[in-house]
C-alpha cells in the first residue's frame, strides 16, 4: 500500500451522502464501530474496500433505504435483521410494544398474539421483555416468517410463528390475553406509496389494497372469538384513522376504548378490552 492509497478523510469530502450515512456504510464495509472510523480516517483503504463502498453508495443514491443496505435496524433497543421481504420497523411502533407490556402484569403467564409480525420486531421484543409470556406471531408471508424466526433465534426469544390470513393461522380455540397488530393501513390510492423509502418496502406490508381500513376491520371483527375474558386488542394505524378504529372497536363490542399518541403527538395506537 502506498501513501497515495485512498483514505476515509479524502473520500468523505467527495461523497454526496450525508456524513452519518457515509460513516454507516463504511462501518459495514470494514466491519468496525463508528469510533474506529474517526480514529483511522487516514489509514489506507484497499481497492476492494473502496469498490464495495461505491456499490453500497450507489444503492443509497438510488433511494434504497439504509436499513435494507445495512441489513438491520434497531427496534426497542435491539438490532433486527431486515430484508426487502419485510417492513422496516418504525420507532413509532415501539408505542405498541410499550402498551402491550403495560397490559402484561409481571409474573402472570399471559398469552400474547402479534398479527402480521414482519421482521418479528413486536413479538420478539415482547417475548424478551416478558419471558414468562407465551407469544404467538403470524404473517401471510413465508419470507417474512423466515426472517422473524431467525431474529427470534439470534436474539434468544421464544415465539411461536404461524403462517396464514390473520386469525386463520391459529389453531382452533386458541385464545389470548393481549392481541397486538401493526397491519397494512395505507390506502392503495395514497401517493406516499410511490415516494421515499416506502417504494422499496413490500406492498403487502403497507397497503390493504383498499381504503386502508380493511385489515384493521378484519382484525377487530375477528378478535372477539380470540380474546379471553377481559382480553385487550391494540392496533397501530395511520395518523387520520384513530376515530374510525375507535368506531370499529365500539361496533364490535369493545369497552374502555382509547387512542394513544406517539412522540409526535399523533394518535397512533388504538385499542380496547373485550368482555
Ligand atoms: C405494517 S407490516 C408490520 C410488520 C411488523 N409487525 C412491524 O411492525 O414492523 C404488516 C405485516 O402484515 C402482514 N400481512 C399483510 N396481510 C396479512 C394477512 N392477511 N394476514 C397476516 N399477515 C398479513 C404483512 O406481510 C406484513 O408483514
TrEMBL record:
Domain Release factor glutamine methyltransferase N-terminal, residue spans: 15-71
NCBIfam families, per database record: hemK_fam, RF_mod_PrmC
Q: Does the keyword S-adenosyl-L-methionine apply?
A: yes
Named from the GO MF annotations, one term is: nucleic acid binding
**What region holds the Methyltransferase small domain?**
101-193
Q: What is its EC number?
A: 2.1.1.297
Q: Which of this chain's residues are annotated to bind substrate?
A: 182-185
Q: Which reaction does it catalyse?
A: L-glutaminyl-[peptide chain release factor] + S-adenosyl-L-methionine = N(5)-methyl-L-glutaminyl-[peptide chain release factor] + S-adenosyl-L-homocysteine + H(+)
Q: Which organism is it from?
A: Parapusillimonas granuli
Q: What is this protein called?
A: Release factor glutamine methyltransferase
Instruction: Name the gene for this chain.
Output: prmC
Q: Which GO terms describe its biological process?
A: methylation
Amino acid at each position: 500500500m502506498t501513501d497515495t492509497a485512498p483514505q476515509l478523510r479524502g473520500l468523505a469530502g467527495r461523497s454526496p451522502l450525508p456524513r452519518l450515512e457515509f460513516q454507516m456504510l463504511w462501518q459495514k464495509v470494514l466491519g468496525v464501530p463508528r469510533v474506529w472510523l474517526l480514529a483511522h480516517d487516514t489509514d489506507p483503504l484497499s481497492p476492494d474496500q473502496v469498490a464495495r463502498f461505491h456499490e453500497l453508495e450507489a444503492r443509497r443514491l438510488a433511494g434504497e433505504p439504509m436499513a435494507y443496505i445495512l441489513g438491520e435496524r434497531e427496534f426497542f433497543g435491539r438490532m433486527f435483521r431486515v430484508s426487502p421481504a419485510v417492513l422496516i420497523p418504525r420507532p413509532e411502533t415501539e408505542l405498541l410494544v410499550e402498551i402491550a407490556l403495560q397490559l402484561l402484569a409481571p409474573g402472570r403467564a399471559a398469552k400474547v398474539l402479534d398479527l402480521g409480525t414482519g421482521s418479528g420486531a413486536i413479538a420478539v421484543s415482547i417475548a424478551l421483555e416478558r419471558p414468562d409470556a407465551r407469544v404467538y406471531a403470524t404473517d401471510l408471508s413465508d419470507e417474512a416468517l423466515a426472517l422473524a424466526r431467525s431474529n427470534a433465534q439470534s436474539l434468544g426469544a421464544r415465539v411461536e410463528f404461524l403462517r396464514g390470513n390473520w386469525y386463520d393461522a391459529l389453531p382452533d380455540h386458541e385464545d389470548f390475553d393481549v392481541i397486538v397488530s401493526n397491519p397494512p393501513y395505507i390506502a392503495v390510492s395514497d401517493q406516499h406509496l410511490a415516494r421515499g423509502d416506502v417504494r422499496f418496502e413490500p406492498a403487502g406490508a403497507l397497503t390493504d389494497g383498499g381504503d386502508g381500513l380493511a385489515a384493521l376491520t378484519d382484525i377487530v371483527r375477528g378478535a372477539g372469538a380470540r380474546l379471553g375474558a377481559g382480553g385487550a386488542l391494540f392496533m397501530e394505524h395511520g395518523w387520520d384513522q384513530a376515530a374510525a378504529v375507535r368506531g370499529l372497536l365500539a361496533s364490535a363490542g369493545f369497552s374502555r376504548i382509547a387512542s394513544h399518541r406517539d412522540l409526535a403527538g399523533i394518535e397512533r395506537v388504538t385499542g380496547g378490552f373485550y368482555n
